[in-house]
Specification:
The chain has 23 helices and no strands. By secondary structure, the chain is mainly α.
Length: 416
């Protein structure tokens, strides 16, 4: 069997057919994603950002405590969706500092802003494809890398991400940018770069440190994805970048509190109250399994604490393993619909290092299920249950291997 596989993959015709097939699937998906994004993009949160930029409290509006303000651009937003027969309700589940990131888009009418956001997401997709090759998927075979990227584009999650105007493409692009800027020019490790090398040599550039921190700060626009992934900077002992990434949000939260006449704490709790209404509406995450109860929040806190502990204890040289764990767990520890699952592609960077090869086939099948099969079955209960079971099996396998790596590292340090 192995000889047959080697013979097949050595044939140039095999790769030609594979590239053509994946390219056709990718082109159709990109076309449909753009077409949907030009019409819909309803998750953009233009309305919440416009309200905040205009000095109105989007959280009170979302919770029905105040009326929608009479802002021309905002009225254009609601009129647009009324015309489509899909009236929108404000759901400001983003922290004010994150809504401020979208301020520039709210300065123009929604019809133009929607197209500009679509273009932004397309550019972010290009950035992701470019930077994954330079960071967490650097070990992927040069023939396979285009296949993985076309697989991502062809999958339903990426297409829906573009169509509904979600923020994950933006967030992941800036996260990868933060990693790349932080690590460029240092000694390579296993795909991303060696832990602590810059700090140890004293050659870290202050400009790169600040730039990386600011890029990381922008990546929090989809914090339910990138907050767990950002702990990669703790794993790499890049404390300064991590701290810098929090500073703009601390300042902007204070600015929002002063503008709206609210307390600082309320600017942190109000978005969470709005977000809690969606806790049970995800796909396979903990919130769905616990029906949005307080137990789900407790599990989320525990999982985040676990990733943080891994960041502190996992030995250096396991960059792809850490980011794979963060990617897999972030998609189930908080509310997520399947449009966020396009980031599953990042985990193939770990398999490319030659480890956990037996699990690669199971993970590939799971990825294909989320990218294609769920759409066929319209994400019904059975398809989600089966796909979710495979996903959690993959998650458990990564947890086991991470714990084993930590155990080996602690044993080695004691023996040393």
């Amino acid at each position: 069997m192995k000889d047959l596989v080697k013979k097949t993959t050595a044939d140039k015709r095999f790769w030609a057919v594979l590239y053509i097939l994946m390219a056709l699937l990718g082109i159709v998906s990109v076309y449909e994603g753009i077409a949907n994004g030009m019409v819909w993009s309803q998750d953009f949160q233009y309305d919440a950002a416009a309200a905040l930029a205009g000095g109105y409290d989007p959280y009170d509006i979302s919770m029905g405590k105040s009326e929608i303000p009479d802002i021309p651009n905002l009225q254009g937003f609601y009129d647009y969706y009324e015309g489509l027969g899909t009236p929108q309700k404000m759901e400001a589940n983003q922290f004010p500092s994150l809504l401020y990131i979208l301020t520039g888009y709210t300065l123009i009418p929604y019809n133009a802003a929607r197209i500009l956001w679509l273009i932004t997401n397309l550019l972010c997709t290009a950035v992701i494809i470019w930077l994954l090759r330079k960071t967490f998927m650097a070990s992927v075979d040069e023939k396979l890398y285009p296949v993985f990227m076309l697989l991502m584009l062809a999958g339903t999650p990426w297409r829906n991400q573009l169509g509904v105007g979600q923020h994950t493409l933006f967030a992941v692009a800036f996260f990868l940018g933060a990693v790349y800027v932080s690590e460029t020019g240092e000694n390579p490790g296993t795909g991303a770069l060696a832990a602590g090398e810059g700090e140890a040599s004293g050659k870290r550039s202050p400009v790169r440190t600040v730039a990386s921190g600011l890029l990381l700060s922008l990546s929090y626009l989809k914090y339910t994805v990138t907050a767990p992934m950002a702990l990669y900077f703790i794993y790499k002992r890049r404390w300064r970048e991590f701290v810098i990434s929090l500073v703009p949000h601390a300042i902007l939260t204070g600015a929002a509190a002063a503008t709206l006449g609210e307390s600082y704490i309320s600017m942190l709790t109000k978005p969470l109250k709005v977000a809690s209404a969606l806790a049970a509406e995800g796909s396979i995450d903990i919130g769905v399994l616990t029906h949005g109860s307080g137990a789900g929040l407790a599990v989320t806190v525990c999982v985040m604490g676990f990733i943080f502990a891994v960041a502190l204890l996992l030995p250096p040289g396991n960059d792809e393993l850490f980011i794979s764990l963060a990617v897999i767990l972030c998609l189930v520890m908080t509310y997520h619909r399947t449009y966020d699952f396009f980031i599953m592609i990042i985990v193939f960077g770990y398999f490319a290092t030659g480890r956990m090869k037996a699990a690669e086939i199971i993970y590939l099948i799971t990825t294909l299920a989320f990218f294609f099969v769920l759409r066929v079955f319209h994400e019904n209960a059975i398809s989600l249950t089966v796909s979710g079971a495979m996903y959690y099996a993959c998650a458990i396998s990564f947890i086991v291997i991470v714990l084993d790596k930590i155990k080996q590292g602690l044993k080695g340090s004691r023996n040393g």
